[in-house]
User: Which sequence fits this backbone?
């Protein structure tokens, strides 16, 4: 069973199925997006009701191995997965890309939380691309004198509570696409999460290309080991099992 929500989780499901065609592969999605990109194999959507609920699910489905390939910021799910694996005595692996590194690292301001990003904005930044997903954007709404560009995968159900904003819907684009968006909206500051995935890095590279200020929220600590940093590493772990 793969805990998903990332491109890595989809790639892993495909790689496992290609390597062991008879293996049953279930990917679990949080259900945050209306039209998620679906992996091969079975998909279950929605929470389990905490670690005990996930442990019950693991037992009921006879899960032989659990791979936590969730987004690095989905810390609750990872914590539950570690506990559930212990309760149900199922081997568990964390598949986690290392956070991004940048040649122009001096131009990147690393912060440890959403709150710290908000504080960093208080001193400077007039036109901000707040590219942190949907769940936490409202924490920035008191910065009424700034313009915020927001991007969500799905159109928001109610208008965001910002004084000055524009909403884009859709997924991240190429470095060139992201550069044009930054220019089109005259953005001076990008706030993003250091998620480590190739797909979402383009906006940071684009902002650095344009010499913009970049505030990068570093991920929470990794869940307990074992860890793999690549699909191949995860396949090798499964092979050993
Ligand atoms: P979270 O805080 O770790 O999870 C909250 C609850 O959602 C979990 O306890 C679990 O509910 C359910 N859940 C999360 N991932 C699940 C999965 N793969 N399968 C089944 N249930 C799942 O995660 P979050 O609320 O989704 O997001 C936290 C942060 O991660 C946010 O900053 C968000 O932007 C970022 N993020 C998440 C995803 C994603 O796919 N989840 C993708 C991109 C970014 P139960 O306790 O009921 O089991």
Assistant:
């Amino acid at each position: 069973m793969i805990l998903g929500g990332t491109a890595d989780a989809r790639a892993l499901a495909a790689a496992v199925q290609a390597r062991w065609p008879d293996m049953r592969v279930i990917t679990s999605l949080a259900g945050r997006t209306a039209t998620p990109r679906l992996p091969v194999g079975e998909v279950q959507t929605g929470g389990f009701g905490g670690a005990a609920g996930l442990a019950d699910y693991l037992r009921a489905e006879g899960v032989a191995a659990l791979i936590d390939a969730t987004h690095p910021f989905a810390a609750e799910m990872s914590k539950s997965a570690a506990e559930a694996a212990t309760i149900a005595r199922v081997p568990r692996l964390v598949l986690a890309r290392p956070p991004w590194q940048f040649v122009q690292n001096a131009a990147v301001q690393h912060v440890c939380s959403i709150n710290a990003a908000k504080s960093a904005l208080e001193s400077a930044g007039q036109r901000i691309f707040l590219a942190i997903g949907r769940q936490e954007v409202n924490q920035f709404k008191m910065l009424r004198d700034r313009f915020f560009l927001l991007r969500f995968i799905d159109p928001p159900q109610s208008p965001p509570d910002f004084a000055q904003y524009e909403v884009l819907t859709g997924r991240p684009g190429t470095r060139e696409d992201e550069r044009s968006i930054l220019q089109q909206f005259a953005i001076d500051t990008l706030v993003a999460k250091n998620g480590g995935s190739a797909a979402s890095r383009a906006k940071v590279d684009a902002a650095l290309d344009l010499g913009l200020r970049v505030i990068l929220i570093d991920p929470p600590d990794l869940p307990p080991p074992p860890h793999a940093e690549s699909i191949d590493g995860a396949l090798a772990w499964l092979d050993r099992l």
Observations:
- The longest strand covers residues 147-152.
- The chain is about 35% helix and 20% strand.
- The domain at 2-98+221-240 is CATH 3.40.50 (Rossmann fold).
